[in-house]
Amino acid sequence: MQKAFVQATAYAPHLSVKPPSFLTCSIVLYFEIWIGFSGDYGGHGAGEKIKLDDLLKPDIFDLFVDLFTDLKNLDQKKLELK
After folding, report:
1. What angle do CA 71, 72, 74 make, to 5 degrees?
2. Cα–Cα distance, 69 to 29 (Å, whole number)
3. Rounded to the nearest 5°, which phi and psi values hold at 49?
4. Digit-coded pLDDT (tens) for 20-69
């Protein structure tokens, strides 16, 4: 997963606008999410790890909906999933 994070961050400087988040996925295990409105996503360890099974939880599902539809208005409480 660290390689996926490095690959994603390597693409960002070449985009006209830096994305406010990165999402990587280990197809059978989990997602990792990095939020970086300022363009700083932290290192690989700064990502929030979410198990695939956790997508069944309403708050986790809502987080993913917000990531794809309303990221700028994402409720900060949803980012504190630990």
Report:
1. 60
2. 24
3. -95, 130
4. 777 888 877 888 888 776 666 766 666 788 999 999 999 889 888 888 88
